[in-house]
Amino acid sequence: MGFSNNKLCVNPETYGVLRVCGLLRRLPTTGDGIAFIYKNTIDVQRVEDTQAASFESLHLSFLSGPRLRLLVVNRPPSTSISVFMEEFGLSEVITLREKLIVLGDFNIHVGLNPDRSGKMFLSLIESLGLVQLVQDPGRKSRLIDLLLTLERDDIVTNVTVSQRLSDHDAVQCNLSVPNPHRPFKTFTFRSIKTIDIDAFTTNLLVGGAATASTLDELVDQYDSGIKP
Question: What phi, psi does 36 have (nearest 5°)?
Answer without folding.
Answer: -120, 115
